[in-house]
Design brief:
Oligomer: single chain
Helix content: 55-70%
Number of strands: 2
Order of helices and strands: HHHEHHHEHH
Strand order of the largest sheet: 1-2
Number of helices: 8
Length: 199
């Protein structure tokens, strides 16, 4: 359902414009839906993935920082052609990939289930939650996948990211998602989206 929500989020603005039903309240409802799909849901995933009750609260960092990210996006006029901070759908897809990674890998499934590894598992998902929270509100500039046209010159970074993502998915299946996130950040930093004039 997170995947479906991410696909819907990619096209909802375009659909609203084509149907001529875009409105300020629609923008706020969109943020509310994003908060649930890409904030609450991944937060509860981390909450459930952390095996020790003492550390489960760390998963709540995800919805808190997702709310902050979405609120900042709504009032930031600079984020029209690029993002400042990692978008919430990308974070949600990253977190949602881990249950699939464990389900497709006997090694990681056994590692996660082994009670001797509880400390390592708790530490990993705690760090993951903190890093994802920090990335959502970080000042780094990231390319937006919502392209205005299909030209190579304007969309070179997007096409490279899509191509590398497809190759990674074919080779690594669900394990490709963390790799794609790394690609996304590195390619965005290399592309260095131009600053808006009013900045």
């Amino acid at each position: 359902m997170v995947i479906f929500a991410a696909i819907a989020d990619l096209f909802d603005g375009m659909a609203a414009r084509l149907l001529k039903v875009s409105s300020p309240i629609g923008k706020e409802l969109d943020s509310l839906a994003d908060m649930v799909s890409f904030g609450v849901v991944p937060g509860m995933m981390v909450f459930n993935l952390i095996p020790h009750d003492t550390y489960k609260w760390i998963g709540l960092c995800i919805p808190v920082f997702a709310a902050l990210r979405l609120a900042k996006f709504n009032i930031d006029t600079r984020q029209t052609k690029h993002f400042i901070g990692v978008p919430t759908p990308a974070i949600a897809l990253l977190i949602a990939s881990f249950p699939f990674i464990m389900s497709q890998s006997d090694y990681w499934s056994a590692f996660y289930s082994n009670m001797n590894n509880v400390t390592i598992v708790c530490t990993f998902f705690s760090i993951l939650a903190f890093v994802c929270s920090a990335l959502m509100v970080s000042p780094i500039r990231l390319i937006s996948m919502k392209a205005e046209n299909l030209s190579w010159g304007v969309n070179k970074a997007r096409y490279i990211l899509v191509l590398m993502s497809i190759i990674a998915i074919v080779l690594f299946q669900f394990s490709a998602v963390p790799i794609i996130m790394l690609f996304y950040i590195v390619i965005s930093l290399l592309a260095n989206p131009a600053k808006e004039e009013h900045e």
